[in-house]
Amino acid sequence: MRKPAALIVAALALTAALAACTDTPQAGKGEAPFVRGDGTLRVLAGSELADLQPILDDAARATGVTVKMTATGTLDGIEAVVQGGAAKQYDATWFASNRYLQLHPDAATRTGTATKVATSPVVLGVRRSVAQQLGWLETRPTWSEIAVAAGERRFTYGMTNPAASNSGFSALVGVAAAIAGTGAALTADQIGPITPRLRAFFAGQSLTAGSSGWLMDAYLRAAAEGRPVDGLVNYESVILSLNASGKLAEPLTVIYPADGVVTADYPLTLLAGASEQARTNYAAVADYLRRPSVQRQIMAKTWRRPAVTDPSLTLAPEFGPRSGNLPELPFPGKLDAADALIGAFGDTLRRPARTIYVLDLSGSMKGARLQGLKAALTGLTGADASLSGQFSRFNGREQVVLLPFSSRPGTASTFELPEADFAPVLAQIRGHVESLKAEGDTAIYDALLAAYALAGSGGDRFTSIVLLTDGERTAGADLAAFRAKLPQLPRVPVFTVLFGESNTGEMTEVATLTGGRTFDARAAGALPAAFKEIRGYQ
Q1: How far, in Å, are 137, 145, 190, 235, 451 from residue 252 at the CA level?
Q2: Is the pLDDT at 300 greater than 70, yes or no?
Q3: Which of 283, 296, 214 is nearest to 493 (CA)?
Q4: Mean pLDDT, to the nearest integer, of 352-371?
């Protein structure tokens, strides 16, 4: 006998209701009911926080508030906050740390309540066999001792760029503060005296990146290609998650330097001027994230430490010393010191870079596209006065190569920047860029092979190739020919820039094959931002 339609509908409704009840997070034992909000909380966030999305999905079901995160680079995000632009589009920010933001004079008037959500110290992960050789399994080394070992090339490591990533900046601050050894906030005039020891530390760096995620991929790629790097300087959470992934042939031993660390605390920060509804939504989400039951989930899923103290929150065995046993190294107290440290890293401390720009000057680039290319390159010579532009310009000791191509590769122009007083060379680059003209066909892969010939073995430089084209190959070798020759070429990453009607599939494959990354500059005005973002990976 068939059931009446009304009974079927009622049964389906009951099933859906029971499923919804099952999916809705419940407050932990002894916890108060969830605070409720309504609608969306718009958050300008660091890209590394994407791993919290499952937690935020649960938060939406529990609180009625959907957190919509828009990823940004740290410097771009900070600039948007201090200049007031962020408050026009977002309700809150969520960076790994607010320390650098708080050094800016206008920050206090632009931000409101900040809620720490989790913590993760910046530490050193080293392959266990290497840590044993160095004697670091028995005794925790200081940052100074780590710097000596790196300077003597007894171990190598990867680290993100301090001008692009908070983990790299925190590592730079920590090493500098520890080497200075004053126990007080580093000042700008202290950077010069400790430069030789800082340079020794960065002599051991063999991988650089603009983000922690890409750094992990590069680390795994190097191991797979038989050129393993000994370790990583990064958040504890990144190293532990990499160990837990099962992708490592040899797990990393986490080294907690005896003289201290710099710790990220991931503050969800309400922006000044947020609406009443946004404040309500913020309070609901902040309350949810700080509950012990949720803190436990954050620890289990992301390997970040709890930001709250609760008897039920015990660290897993994989974690090292408790936070109270990890001395916190002082952060610079003034903006000029922090900026001077970032500037010194690029111009003086790090291994110098060789950057080869392979530039499509075919006929389709005439007009606005060529002008956009010129403006983007000119911005890297110091013409871009923005905060991110300040730290993405060409660095002292860098070798900049401009290789134009159309129907065939053109003549490469090489510019060598000195360690100091490099304004004249930057002016030469601007003049050369302004003289570029567009005509002819598009010999992409001939030009790319010519760039590899210029790259050579790389020497003691971080060498990379940036390929910009607005179309598909119409002359010369094709992708198959490039793919066939790749095993005989030096290991140099290619960062491809999608522009105009460039072949997305081929450009993505080139980046993947070479260990690079693709950057999308097809939106109007996006090319300068793409070029600046690439700088973090060079």
Answers
A1: 12, 19, 33, 13, 35
A2: yes
A3: 214
A4: 96
Q: Which residues contact 532 (CB under 8 A, 6 or more apart)?
A: 379, 380, 384, 388, 389, 392
* Measured CA distances, 15 to 10, 12, 62, 488 (Å): 9, 5, 20, 61
Residue-wise DSSP of 267-313: EEEEETT--HHHHHHHHHHHHHHTSHHHHHHHHHHH-PEESS--TT-
Instruction: Say yes or no to pLDDT of 470 above 80.
Output: yes
How far is residue 233's CA from residue 207's CA, in Å, rounded to a whole number? 10
First to last CA, the chain: 72
Q: What is the pLDDT of residue 22?
A: 47
How many residues does this entry show for the chain?
A: 538
Question: What's the CA gap between 270 and 261, in Å, rounded?
Answer: 27
Distance, CA of 250 to CA of 243 (rounded, Å): 9
Q: d(Cα 294, Cα 55) in Å, to the nearest integer?
A: 8
**pLDDT score of 75:** 87
Instruction: Look at residue 507 in the predicted model and tell me its pLDDT.
Output: 96
Cβ–Cβ < 8 Å for 504, 498: yes
- Please name the amino acid found at residue 127: R
Strands 118-127 and 305-306: antiparallel
Across all residues in the chain, what is the average pLDDT?
Answer: 92
CB-based burial, 422-455: b 16+ in 10 Å, e otherwise: beebbeebbeebeebebebbbbbbbbbbbbbebb
CB-count burial class (<10 Å; 0-12, 13-18, 19+) for 412: middle
- The proportion of the chain whose per-residue pLDDT surpasses 70, expressed as a percent, equals 95
**In this structure, which long-range contacts are made by residues 197-200, counting pairs with CB atoms below 8 Å and at least 24 apart in sequence?**
197/144, 197/147, 197/151, 198/147, 198/344, 198/349, 199/151, 199/348, 199/349, 200/147, 200/148, 200/150, 200/151
> Which residue type occupies 346?
G
d(CA 360, CA 73): 27
Token look-up 């060789």 returns 354
Report residue 295 as tokens.
């803190």
Answer yes or no: is pLDDT of 166 > 50: yes
The 10 Å Cβ neighbour count of residue 29 is 8
Q: Give the model's confidence band at 458: pLDDT under 50 very low, under 70 low, under 90 confident, else very high.
A: low
Does position 282 have pLDDT exceeding 50, yes or no? yes
Report how far residue 70's alpha carbon sits from residue 61's, in angstroms, rounded to the nearest whole number. 20
Q: Which tokens sit at 159?
A: 């680290």
Handedness of CA 110, 113, 117, 119 (dihedral sign): positive
Residue with tokens 């940004």: 72
Query: Amino acid identity of 134?
Result: L
| pLDDT reported for residue 5 | 40
7 has a pLDDT exceeding 50: no
Dist. CA 462–CA 350, nearest whole Å: 9
Q: 472 or 451, which is more confident?
A: 451
pLDDT of residue 27: 84
